[in-house]
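User: I'll paste a sequence; please echo it back and then give the predicted structure.

Assistant: Echoing your sequence first, then the prediction.
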Amino acid sequence: MKVDIKAAMTKRHDEKVSGSVYIRSFRYKTGNNGKPFAKGVLCDQESTIGFVVWSEVIEDFRAVDTEKILSISGRIDTWNSTATIVIESVKSDIHGYSIGDFLCGYDKCKLEEEFYKCLSDASPNVKQLVNKIIIDDVKARFFSEFAAKRKHDACVGGLANHTIKMLRLVKTMIGNDERLLPYSDIIYMGVICHDLGKIRELYMGEYVKNSFISHREYGCEMMYERKEDIVSLFGEDFFYHLLSVIRGHHHIYDEKAKTIYAYIVHLIDMMDAQVTEIMETINTSVYKEKSNEEKIMEHDGEFLHY
């Protein structure tokens, strides 16, 4: 069974814990005695707790440190009323747990259903290209990856959920202004692909090696891998417009949106990300309701009035 982290946090000093755990992050360090140890964080759907592996067990930990899910046994160490798990034995998990079993998130089947439903008004070429890009491992990762490490939709399936919300906005915008119809293909594909590079930038919400180049560059890299399919369906100009959307959808620094399509996708992206982040902050942070019904949320040191 899994270690109940919330329950572990309430245990007394030296009480025993054992079971399967998900290692969110860790790093190796060297103690004052010159011996190596590992320190990191375990998490499940509700809670996180620190852990430490001392030198006596460090070689066993090194043997499995590339695995995210491990079977451990250990004891609780408390310091200043904060509980930490001291891992005393560790091995590969034998219970068949997946990362999704330890993290909160969206239902994959419902995400897939809603994603393809959002494409009902898209052109046949858009649908065909989606079926060439969102396949196999890309598809599995798209419907399971986080949209961000800490901010909006930072959970399993968050990337797909963020994309779906943007697709709903696209449908509404085109329905409200028919002048967008001639550009609907590039807007639809821009929304679908704008964050697709996050499946290479992140792994279950954690940044991976070389992620410093950003999901924008990874997204462009993925489009080059599908250039032949894109050009055959839409032409070469469309391909480079799609690269422009992916590279410029944050509209920051030297990667500002260079086309109206990129800027429209930027606005849709910003609207969903910021509103979602505000609502998530309301649920988890300082939120006050004044007697005059003016609602104020303290966010990043400022007060947002709405």
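The radius of gyration is 23 Å. The mean pLDDT is 89.
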